[in-house]
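Cont'd.
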Amino acid sequence: MPSFANAVNEQVGYEFAASQQYIAIATYYDAQTLPQLAAHFYRQSVEERNHAMMMVQYLLDADEEVVVPGVDAPQTRFTDAVAPVSLALVQEKRVTAQIVELVKLAREEGELVGEQFLHWFLQEQREEVASMTELLAVVERGKDNLLHVEEHLGRAAGGESPLEVGAPPAAGGVL
Ligand SMILES: [Fe+2]
Ligand SMILES: [Fe+2]
């Protein structure tokens, strides 16, 4: 398997790992009766799953073998309500670095179709790092009364991001 296809397969695993981590964060907030924070991360989890399936569709289209990798268990225990969002921001920054490395590899190997496929993910990461940075600021400001955070998320909810319109197709369809 060419190393670019191999690296895309690895990234499928990282996207599923991100999805699992967001389910773990969502259930942490759900257990504390913070439904807006929970809903936010349940939705993020589905988005990460969709990212994985977009990469699977790319591999299918490129006639490369699809390997669905196993993932490490997510962190499920947190010291306070701020910690999950801090972890999520670290995760989004790590994924950004991973996508950048994938783009560099595509260039090195002359995989320009693959590089073009990844451009959407660069935009998506810019958006996700920005929105998680904002959420961290909101949660830090509201940590002594999390109902303020819930109200903020309740007001901000709804509206599809314009990015979703130009998203690559996902194997089996986007959820
Ligand atoms: Fe992702
Ligand atoms: Fe993400």
